[in-house]
Amino acid sequence: MLSGKKILVGVTGSIAAYKTAYLIRELIKLEAEVKVIMTKASSDFISPLTLATLSKNPVAIDFVKDEESGEWENHVALGLWADLFIIAPASANSISKLVSGNADNLLVATYLSAKCPVWIAPAMDLDMFKHFSTNENLSKLRDKGVHVIEPTEGELASGLEGKGRMEEPEVIAQLIHEYFMADSILKGRNILITGGPTYEAIDPVRFIGNHSSGKTGILLADECAKRGAKVTLITGPTNIKVKDPHINVINVRSALEMMQAVEKLWSGMDIGIFSAAVADYRPLEVADEKIKKSDEELTIKLVKNPDILLWTGEHKRADQYLVGFALETENEVENGFKKLAKKNLDLLVLNSLNDKGAGFGHDTNKVSFLKTNNKIRSFELKDKSAVMADIINEIEEDLES
Ligand code: PMT
Question: Is 254 in the pocket of ligand 1 (CB under 6 A)?
Fold first, then answer.
């Protein structure tokens, strides 16, 4: 999956532009964020409205967005925004402009500003593709690091047969996916995730629990698995199904069960991400039978549960990376930094119940990353899957540095 990846799709004037609609659909299915730049010529082949609808973003075509106000399309920002710029289809004319730097349209100007990898998927008639000028242009672009997706052979719009068909959208999307997956430092690493609540039994029918839905743990597991990691998720009770068959799921109920599973697995792990909302206390005694309603008051004596994350931090080797969460209701940052240090964490993800839409149950969260040396990085309220992508990106950056 490409969640959290920003893909800029450039479209130039070729009959193959209709295939770009399918390419965008594939990228969106893979959860990429997609923006589109078109040349004016390409809009003769496919409508900007179609591509705007599929990409869920306005399409950029002109340097000027609004003539009256003078608002301009910021090609520099677009170039910097993208994690990958794919020009598909790339016509012979546009390929030649990329080589010469002839920035008479927004697409080429953006190419000149882009800092990310640039890919092109040429599409043209077979003789145009064979022509020495096209060949020279493509080899110049390759020399400068542009990745060229070879066109395929087959029937062309001219009616002729030969090499020049733009590669199929599904194949291009798969190549992009493989590119980002191969890129992840998490590929093949063992990652242990805790998620969900714990239920501490009072009697056979009652328990002490909390509002965690288990969503965060599952989304974290999904995100790590997408990046090629070997993921074990230890989750407390949840109604959400884990769909990815590559995730090893261990279902537990209580803090003691979670503790046992973590103790068994931690030494074989490279990374731990502990998002579970573990009950800090459990009843000292669990009644064998359902407690009958008799007295006006009922006292249940509670004892402290082990702090699973604290144990894990104490047993952390130098080659292991540990992330904890903190759910606070007051003095959030101060308490967060205390937990970071006490539990020997590399990263603490802080969320506060004071922020609307954050914490339990919601599909969104608003988090800050706390690190040693009082480093703090705060994010907007986002969809939880985007929050997980931010967390995993942060871990990747730390492991790469
Ligand atoms: O499941 P969702 O509905 O998506 O909700 C997500 C969440 C709100 C549960 C999640 O974002 C979150 O904040 N998880 C941590 C909740 C929590 O218990 O925070 P804490 O500040 O009490 O604990 C700090 C850290 O120690 C946590 O990483 C926790 O997993 C860990 N801990 C705490 C107590 C304990 N006995 N053992 C632990 O391992």
Answer: no
